[in-house]
Specification:
Mean pLDDT: 83
Shape: elongated
Radius of gyration: 25 Å
Number of helices: 1
Strand content: 35-45%
Helix content: 25-40%
Largest sheet: 4 strands, antiparallel
Distance between the termini: 42 Å
Structural class: alpha+beta
């Protein structure tokens, strides 16, 4: 038992699939479902000169798949040199490239489940 507040107790449910809030004189009051946490690792690198910014992005998925995306931005010569803006544009485009690949991968895998 993790928590005991008089007539209410918090602990594992009878099936062992989660935790619940129980009343000692009644049945389950509420049940908490334990969820698995997932994470992805993303890397974005930039290569810049006076007018061009190139971005290369890498996404590593839990199934060890690596998706790579590329993006490019060109600064108008009349605009001031602000590398941050070129990085945001090129980086966003590289991530959109990965987003399209990831969507296609998910759609293909979903079709195999039908």
């Amino acid at each position: 038992m993790i928590f005991d507040a008089g007539a209410l107790m918090f602990g594992p449910n009878e099936e062992g699939s989660g935790y619940g809030l129980f009343c000692t004189r009644s049945s389950i009051v509420a049940e908490v479902v334990v969820m698995q946490v997932a994470g992805w690792h993303v890397e974005v690198e930039f290569d810049e000169d006076e007018t061009h910014t190139r971005a290369a992005a890498l996404l590593r998925l839990r199934d060890d798949t690596e998706l790579r995306g590329k993006g490019h931005a060109t600064r108008n010569p009349a605009d001031p040199e602000e590398h941050r803006i070129g990085e945001e544009l090129a980086g966003g485009r590289a991530l959109m490239d990965i987003a399209q690949q990831l969507t296609a991968k998910g759609n293909a895998e979903a079709k195999t489940l039908r």
